Structure formats: C-alpha cells, structure tokens
C-alpha cells in the first residue's frame, strides 16, 4: 500500500495517473504543452506529436500504478519513484515532471532497479 494519497498530490500528477489508469491517450495528451519534451534512455520525444507517439506505444503495455514509493514536489516540479505494472509485470519506475502553465513541459522517465 502506498504511503501517499494521490488525491492530495500535485493536480498535474493526479490527472496524469488518472489518464494512465484509464489508458486514455487523449486525456494523457491534455496534460502536455505543445512544446513538451519527454526524455528517456531510449531517446528524446520532442514536441506534442512525438510525445503522443511515445505514449501511444506506452499505453499498449497497460501501465498500472502499484505503489508510489517516493514523491516530492514544488509548485512546478514533481519527482517520483514508483512500482508500475507493465503488461502485468512489476517494474521500478522513476521520473521528473516539470510543469509550465498547469501542464507538463519537460519530463524524464525511466525503468530499472
């Protein structure tokens, strides 16, 4: 069980977790600015269409939040570590969301132990 109540966390993080849980690509994309960039070890997705393409692939893995292990935020930055199920298999996830005008402007995301 998570030690964090998601309903009390940054509203952008709440919306992102809800959209991912619903596997709703359009809801996910509403969380990003048009000039968003998503940095992963696999590469950088720069611009809204590249971010859309990345998330279209990611949602096929049916990501589900299992446990939010660590979380800290400021007004414009969110840093987290979690366990996510991808295709039913637990994966350690971590990342940063930088928020501009109420949406995600920059994001880092990775998986590993």
Fold and architecture overview:
The protein is α+β, with helices and mostly antiparallel strands and 113 residues long. The chain has a single domain, classed as Roll (Nuclear Transport Factor 2, Chain: A), CATH 3.10.450.50. Helix content is 25%, strand content 48%. The protein contains 3 helices and 6 strands. The chain is globular and about 35 Å long. It starts with 10 loop residues before the first helix and ends with a strand.
Name the features.
Nuclear Transport Factor 2, Chain: A, 3 helices, 113 residues, 6-stranded mixed sheet, alpha+beta, globular
**Overall pLDDT confidence:** 95
The rounded distance between the terminal residues' Cα atoms is 19 Å
Element pattern in H and E: HHEEHEEEE
Q: How many helices does DSSP assign?
A: 3
InterPro entries: NTF2-like_dom_sf (IPR032710), SnoaL-like (IPR037401)
Domain SnoaL-like: 14-106
Pfam families: SnoaL_2
Protein name: SnoaL-like domain-containing protein
Concise summary:
The chain is 25% helix and 48% strand. It has 113 residues and is of the alpha+beta class. It starts with 10 loop residues before the first helix and ends with a strand.
Layout of helices and strands:
Blueprint: H1 11-21, H2 25-29, E1 32-40, E2 43-46, H3 48-59, E3 64-73, E4 77-86, E5 89-100, E6 103-111
Parallel strand pairs: 1-6
Antiparallel strand pairs: 1-2, 3-4, 4-5, 5-6
